[in-house]
Amino acid sequence: MSNRSFTQLIEFEIEPRQQAALVSALATQTEGLAQRYDGFLSASVQASDDGRRVLSFLQWQSREAGEAAFRSFESGEEDFWQLIRTHRAKNVTFNSFQVHSSIARSHDDALHCRLPVSRY
């Protein structure tokens, strides 16, 4: 079993007038996922400058943790498919990735790099 974290990227193509509402709805749902599911590491919701795309980025400790949360997201009280219909997404693209390395700046301005142990 790999010890690499797992990232889900969901890109929405929408009309610019829908962008703010979709960003708000995704931020609310992402906060709920973070509070309810073990294995949550980080998330962000990003909006394109042209107003036509929204990107949801969720990072989990494992693929299993991310998939369990997404299954609930699909069918729970905050139905993912209803969110797509409500905000009239023209296209939704799902991607998933295993993290091979990451770097972040801490509050003390230091850089921290995580390189998971490779199984290769």
Features:
single chain, 120 residues, alpha+beta, Alpha-Beta Plaits, 3 helices, ABM domain-containing protein, ABM_dom, Dimeric_a/b-barrel
Give a written overview of the molecule.
- This protein has 120 residues and is α+β, with helices and mostly antiparallel strands.
- The protein has one domain: Alpha-Beta Plaits (2-Layer Sandwich).
- It is 32% helix and 33% strand.
- The protein contains 3 helices and 6 strands.
- It is globular and about 40 Å long.
- 16% of the residues are buried.
- The mean pLDDT is 84.
- It holds the Pfam family ABM.
- This is ABM domain-containing protein.
Q: What's this, in brief?
A:
With 120 residues, the chain is of the alpha+beta class.
Give the SSE map.
Elements: E1 6-13, H1 19-36, E2 40-47, E3 53-60, H2 63-75, H3 80-86, E4 91-98, E5 102-105, E6 111-114
Antiparallel strand pairs: 1-3, 1-4, 2-3, 5-6
Which CATH class? Alpha Beta
Helical fraction:
25-40%
What summary fits the major beta sheet? 4 strands, antiparallel
Per DSSP, what share of the residues sits in E-state strands of 2 or more residues?
Answer: 25-35%
Could you name the ranges where pLDDT drops below 50 across 5 or more consecutive residues? none
- Which structural category do the helix and sheet elements fall into? alpha+beta
CATH fold descriptor:
Alpha-Beta Plaits
